[in-house]
Amino acid sequence: MKILSVIGARPQFIKCAPLSRKLRESHEEILVHTGQHYDPKMSDIFFKELGIPEPDYNLGIGSATQGEQTGKMLMEIEKLLINEEPDIVLVYGDTNSTIAGSLAASKLQIHVAHVEAGLRSFDRTMPEEINRIVTDHISNLLFCPTRTAVTNLENEGITDGVHNVGDVMMDALHYNIKVAEEKSTILDDLNLSHQDFMVATIHRASNTDDIENLSSIVKAFCSVDANILFPVHPRTKKCLQQYGLWDKLRENVNVISPLGYLDMLKLMSSSRKILTDSGGVQKEAYVLGVPCITMRNNTEWVETVDDGWNVLVGADCGLIIDAINGFEGTGMKGNMFGFGDACEMIYKIISSRI
Ligand code: UD1
Ligand code: UDP
């Protein structure tokens, strides 16, 4: 079968690595990088570290407004699909690369397979929520990471082609955590000891593009007696500089460039707590058994909150400080994200369609 996979943003490289490896055992894969993320530390490093094949096409779309970025991707992907005539288009997650890939394919009546289908934050102010809803409604195969995701789709009347396969990020995590333990020297490089710091990541539009929210988060970080290691997303760096917050960061906040996946895993597994607005990082914190403080008002990964390992604090300075000082993960952890065999299950389902 000829599968055309569309990726473009950091978490999609991580998700695609194990699945691409599996699919290529007996299928032809055409890999398309939209160029949504392009800085070496947001893109190339993942291809090198995770052994992802060189993309067959890099569309070089880059950054723009929501509509312009998505529109340019749509135009370029359509041309490719007409030339390549794949049997199936595979898209991941909820970015603009996801919606562009699924929309282009569906209009050409090419089957769409959506990895990480069925997630909902029920917050339509998020561009990602729009991308998820539209992609799910035009997909033919919907690979859900959790039972909650299947239920969300049922509630929207989507039941055909739905498979609860678990989360492909678990495949990536299980495979790479051992490699990270062996290879990563990041703790020594940064002169850190196990549990004497907290990792923080921020990139969600609701936090970066809102000066009050970003100021409130910075104030919280600078008010606590904790070492915060902050690998900063380029979007966040730009906003911190633009709002004059960059120079207000105190020395307990160690701002570094975005990290490769292996160093990130090593740091997260050694971190006392994790502060984030990332989807992927919330799950990784849960699986690694690190208490997670999520700077959002909602989450698609409700299981992590229900189980007591994640707390939603929004961008509220007081709540962030309280959680840094007081929140501890408690309770049993389940296997709701699967067993790290999602790629095997997806491979079998796709292969059975020949
Ligand atoms: C995107 C996804 C988000 C995902 C995140 C993962 C959408 C709508 N959002 O958000 O769902 O969680 O990726 O990290 O698709 N920039 C650079 N260099 C880069 C990439 C981005 O400087 O390599 C800067 C640019 O100023 C750009 C901004 O970051 O305008 C935002 O990038 P964009 O890809 O539009 O959104 P993300 O916030 O990265
Ligand atoms: N990540 C990384 N380096 C970093 C920050 C994050 O490798 O500096 C990884 C993280 O471990 C997770 C993924 O990137 O696997 C999450 O991506 P991101 O937070 O950009 O997007 P989201 O998951 O919110 O869509």
Your description of this structure?
This protein is α/β, with parallel strands linked by helices and 354 residues long. Helix content is 46%, strand content 15%. The chain has a seven-stranded parallel β-sheet with strand order 3-2-1-4-5-6-7, sandwiched between helices. A six-stranded parallel β-sheet has the order 10-9-8-11-12-13, with helices on both faces. The model has no long low-confidence stretch (mean pLDDT 97). It folds into two domains: 180 residues, Rossmann fold, CATH 3.40.50; 151 residues, Rossmann fold (3-Layer(aba) Sandwich), CATH 3.40.50.2000. Bound molecules: uridine-diphosphate-N-acetylglucosamine and uridine-5'-diphosphate. The site of uridine-diphosphate-N-acetylglucosamine has 18 residues, from helix 1, helix 5 and helix 11.
Search tags:
single chain; 354 residues; alpha/beta; Rossmann fold; seven-stranded parallel beta sheet; six-stranded parallel beta sheet; 46% helix; binds uridine-diphosphate-N-acetylglucosamine; binds uridine-5'-diphosphate
Total number of distinct structural domains: 2
Using DSSP, what is the number of strands?
Answer: 13
Write out the CATH superfamily name of the largest domain: Glycogen Phosphorylase B
What is the count of DSSP helices, taking H or I runs of 4+ residues? 16
What portion of residues belong to β-strands? 5-15%
Uncertain regions spanning at least 5 consecutive residues: none
Query: What radius of gyration results from the CA coordinates?
Result: 20 Å
Overall pLDDT score: 97
Tell me the CATH topology of the largest domain: Rossmann fold
**What's the CATH first level of the largest domain?**
Alpha Beta
